[in-house]
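Need a sequence for this fold. Nothing fancy.
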């Protein structure tokens, strides 16, 4: 406390690097010391309050991040036991068995098991390599192509340079699932999904031609909102969403 130290020095007769124009009585010195002490206490209190507010804000931001991450994990857990996906998968498997297509049935079972294995292994992970996510997406797409033998196609154009970059677990797969959920699929109007990732873009883009189901339920955007919030919490980088009359496109930053 520089001011109070100066006052004490004046009272005790210590030499200072500056001088006052007149002498002070002991009473005046005491009053000056009390005033400067109060000023310094006030200043330190203000600094403490500002520091406390900054720390509290950082803690609140961290807690919000944990809450959003917990919500995203819950969403992935719900996805793991998605009754529609499981019901469709078991129906397809039943058809393959009834038609005695044993090799296809065996391959289907292995890919279905691989999908659930990936989800369980990465349940607690914040990020995964794009290479791992795309291997998972490949198994998921293979199952969809058994369900939709015509009218559904996924095209990929991903640079090897970005395969070791990171994305959220199941994020690319979720975008494909949303495209299937909200768009019609048929031989006369094929649904084409493109996954593109280039080193220069620093992102992976998932797009599809827009052909919304006439009787489909309106999108709640829950999954997309969780992905958006997770990216903001982890990196501060927003995802990109673009919709035209003919195309829907989501861009996920590579971390």
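Here you go.
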């Amino acid at each position: 406390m520089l001011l109070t130290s100066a006052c004490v020095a004046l009272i005790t007769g210590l030499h200072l690097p500056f001088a006052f124009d007149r002498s002070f009585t002991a009473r005046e010195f005491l009053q000056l010391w009390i005033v400067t002490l109060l000023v310094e206490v006030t200043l330190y209190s203000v600094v403490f309050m500002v520091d406390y507010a900054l720390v509290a804000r950082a803690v609140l931001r961290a807690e919000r991040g944990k809450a959003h991450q917990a919500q995203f994990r819950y969403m992935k857990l719900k996805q793991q036991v998605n009754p529609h996906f499981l019901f469709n998968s078991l129906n397809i498997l039943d058809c393959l068995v009834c038609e005695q297509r044993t090799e296809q049935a065996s391959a289907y079972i292995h890919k279905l098991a691989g999908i659930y294995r990936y989800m369980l292994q990465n349940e607690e992970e914040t990020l995964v390599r794009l290479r791992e996510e795309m291997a998972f997406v490949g198994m998921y797409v293979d199952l969809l192509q058994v369900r939709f033998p015509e009218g559904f196609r996924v095209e990929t154009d991903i640079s090897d340079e970005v395969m070791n970059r990171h994305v959220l677990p199941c994020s690319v797969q979720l975008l494909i699932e949303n495209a299937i959920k909200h768009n019609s699929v048929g031989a006369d109007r094929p649904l084409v999904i493109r996954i593109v990732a280039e080193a220069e873009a620093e992102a992976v883009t998932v797009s599809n031609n827009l052909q919304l189901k006439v009787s489909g339920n309106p999108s709640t955007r829950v999954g997309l909102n969780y992905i958006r919030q997770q990216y903001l919490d982890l990196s501060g980088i927003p995802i990109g969403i673009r919709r035209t009359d003919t195309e829907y496109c989501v861009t996920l930053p590579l971390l």
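For context: Residues 7-16 have pLDDT under 50 and may be disordered.
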